[in-house]
Design a protein that fits this description.
The chain has eleven helices and 19 strands. By secondary structure, it is of the alpha+beta class. It has a domain of 180 residues: Barwin-like endoglucanases (Ribosomal Protein L25, Chain P). The strands form three sheets. It has a six-stranded mixed barrel. Strands 7-11-6-12-13-14 form a six-stranded mixed β-sheet. Strands 1, 8, 9 and 10 form a four-stranded antiparallel β-sheet that branches. The radius of gyration is 22 Å and the shape is globular.
Length: 404
């Protein structure tokens, strides 16, 4: 019987289970925000892989993360960091339960610190994050807080609803039965006495669903990119602005429309960006629905009182907050990030404060760039090779060699 139940659940997971973003979507919203990106992690060339991976699983509470102990001298441009701003960000992060769990004693000590650099170097140890195969290079992308134009009533050009969470959306938590699935939620709806997948993006756009509209957007493309970012600002037709964030989603995994355009030879891989995709859609209005509906995932929104916050539950800080894959990097972690190409150079401490549907893997991060035209331009084009270190308490006990 148990085996049968497991097979059924596995089958359902295949078509309708998504990873729960954690408070935000942007829990990761911003309540639970499940922000995603337009392309996936295979967009940058891989670094040379060591024949023998010297990185190991070093900590019981990081069972999937391969680490190598490092020194602060190994961190690119470490001496150029603004340590006081780092201290301020760490103090803010320490207001959350997840950060306190990771840095219990240090969250207490930081209140009395006078010399930020000494505190970091004396009380933390950097560990280089590797993949299981020994690769130490990944991908950095960026995200931002977009602006959409809306009306509280459906009229004229304002005809694309931003739905609140549907009343008939059912979420099943599998963790109590299968602890290994603790980060997953099964989403669907009832059809008689059967749980079936919820409606796809195409179905939602073509029928009346059991959900109220938060507001109506003047562009289906803008609405889609708002879903991609997970939260944003909505400028009403009366001139006022409201903050909106992730409330839930329909249960389907995100599919990259950028990847679709490349696969069908509409774009070259190197051409893919938020800007290039938008430009192509604007020039091909008869293809918009087909392209957007390729991504069956659909995000629902809620009204908020504050700007973008993440899965950790606190307001995101531009160029200091990142989204990560929490299977490898715990929310609340302090990280050192190095990502450089011919257009950007990021060498700095960041805080893992968000998650995202397309942020998968140990060496994968999405940096929050803020609000406005500049943030949008940089975020839409950012694809840079990434190296990551996690800064852990110096007192943290490593597993004994026989346990590795």
């Amino acid at each position: 019987m148990k085996q049968t139940i497991f097979i059924i659940i596995t089958a359902i997971l295949f078509f309708g289970c998504t990873k729960e973003p954690i408070i935000k979507q942007k829990e990761k919203v911003l309540g639970v925000n499940e922000r995603v990106i337009l392309y996936d992690s295979n967009l940058t060339s891989k670094s040379n892989i060591n024949n023998v991976n010297s990185a190991k699983i070093l900590f019981k509470d990081l069972p999937n993360t391969y680490l190598k102990k490092s020194n602060f001298t190994d961190l690119p441009n470490w001496n150029s960091e603004n340590y006081n701003l780092v201290l301020k960000s760490f103090k803010n992060s320490c207001t959350t339960k997840k950060t306190k769990k990771l840095y219990k004693l240090l969250c207490k000590k930081v209140k009395y610190v006078k010399n930020a650099k000494s505190f970091l170097q004396q009380d933390f140890t950097p560990f280089e994050i590797n993949k299981k195969d020994g690769e130490n290079q990944g991908l950095l992308t960026g995200y931002y807080e977009p602006l959409v134009h809306v009306s509280l009533k459906k009229k004229g050009k304002y005809k694309y609803p931003l739905y609140k969470r549907p009343k008939d959306l059912i979420i099943v938590d599998l963790a109590s039965i299968y602890p290994k699935l603790k980060h997953y939620r099964l989403r669907g709806r009832l059809d008689g006495n059967k749980l079936v997948p919820y409606y796809t993006r195409k179905e939602i756009n073509s029928k009346q669903i059991d959900a109220d509209a938060l507001c109506y957007c003047d562009s289906r493309i803008d609405r889609f990119f708002l879903e991609v970012q997970g939260s944003g600002r909505a400028k009403l037709d009366n001139g006022k602005t409201m903050f909106i964030g992730y409330a839930d989603q329909n249960g389907y995994r995100y599919k990259s429309i950028g990847k679709y355009l490349v696969k069908h030879k509409i774009m070259k891989l190197k051409e893919v960006s938020l800007q290039s995709i938008r430009k192509w859609l604007d020039k091909n209005p008869d293809k918009i629905d087909k392209i957007l509906n390729y991504n069956k995932s659909f995000v629902y929104f809620r009204r908020k009182n504050t700007p973008a916050s993440g899965s950790l539950g606190i307001k995101l800080t531009p160029k200091r907050s990142v989204a990560v894959d929490r299977r490898y990097i715990p929310l609340g972690s302090m990280l050192y990030l190095s990502a450089n190409n011919d257009k950007v150079a990021f060498n700095k401490i960041v805080l893992a404060q968000d998650t995202g549907g397309a942020i998968k893997g140990a060496l994968r991060a999405d940096i929050f760039l803020g609000y406005g035209k500049y943030a949008r331009e940089i975020a839409g084009k950012l694809k840079a090779p990434l190296k990551l270190w996690i800064l852990l308490p110096k007192s943290k006990k490593e597993l004994k060699s026989e346990a590795l």
